[in-house]
User: Fold this.
Amino acid sequence: MTKVLVLHSVSLLRSALVALLKSEGAFDVFSAGWRSAARNVGALRPDVCVVDLDCPGATALLDGGADADRELLGAGTALLVLASAGRPGALRRAFEARALGYVDKHGSPHRLVRGIRKVAEGERFVDESLAFGFLEASRMPLTARELSVLARAAEGESIAEIARGLHLSNGTVRNYMASATRKVGARNRIDAIRISQCAGWV
Assistant:
């Protein structure tokens, strides 16, 4: 059986996803919140890890790119994300983190099931409905690191907190913030966050 770990910050949604996948009968399903994510991944060694990109905890996984992917998931675990075409920034960050599967969270449950089966076999799976989101992601003027900095700032983190979370200096974070602000044509940091949120980048 395919071993699946569902990571979600909301207990009710996490339970619903587990119930859905268990009803298939072909999956051995487990779940965890973000605080115990690393411990559960290490103990369970799942074949597939399912992550909702809208969860605050997903930020830590996406921000580190492939390095964070390997650190949290370990070898042999494929990352499948639940995404929305309206958030191209999150799609780009998931791609940088080497996610193998992309399932539209507004789609039908059988797409999630199919996606898990595909990535468990080492194949890429992308919902067609997310194609426009990927197209928009390719047009974004911001780098993955600039997106990470803006996304954390949008969650209310200070420069120092962003620096600690991304293992950067305060000055480097300020440089990324200034660059992102300039690229989106914003007046200041707050305006850059507003513009990026309206565009679905963060």
Notes: The chain has eleven helices and six strands. Confidence is low (pLDDT under 50) at residues 65-69.
